[in-house]
Amino acid sequence: MASTDMTVVILADGSNIKGNIIAAGMDGYIIRDTTSSTVMKVPKLTGTYNSADRSTKPNVHNNMYTNDLSREKEAYRRLQGVHGIANCLKISANGLVFEFYTNGDLEDYIKHNPPAPWKQKMNWILQILDAVIACHKIRVLVFDIALRNLMLDDDMNIKLIDFANSSLLPLDQVTELMDEDGYTAEMDLLHVTNVIYSISR
């Protein structure tokens, strides 16, 4: 019987992914664990599966993706317990495990549902502001603040996700919130205003 090679998504430890890929970003995949109410963000790693010997050989270009999640892992370690941030349940070599939010993200919710009452919109706006301010207090610049990165929990409250491009500034400094590329807290707030406009329409 002839072998068939096919490209598969793999974990950092070289094993094949178990679960359904429900989203893909620039730096990783989101995998839904069908046996629990969790999702896992993993680096965008692939391998070649050989059906003859049932082996998987990692792609030679995988190393360019592994560092993308290391920054996000450090961000979630610092953000542990911060109100308004997605609940990260586990950080491992393979990726980040999160609570699964059945209401999805705010972008899809707005797109597929009737306009929310103004009171609900105001709650969302205030929750986003509170979460970003909480990040700034522990010297984290969020960067990627967008409707697609605002999850809705069971009570329709906002939970920020995606800190792959965030900046973690030294906790022992009292300087202005600015990273080495010149990104500032004010630029975070500019992204927040764009989100507020989208919610308010």
TrEMBL record:
Pfam families assigned: Pkinase (PF00069)
Organism superkingdom: Eukaryota
Residues of the Protein kinase domain: 16-201
PANTHER family assigned to the protein according to its UniProt record, in alphabetical order: SERINE/THREONINE-PROTEIN KINASE PLK
InterPro entries the record matches: Kinase-like_dom_sf, Prot_kinase_dom
Organism: Aureobasidium mustum
Any one GO molecular-function label of the UniProt entry: protein kinase activity
Any one annotated GO CC term: nucleus
Record-given protein name: Protein kinase domain-containing protein
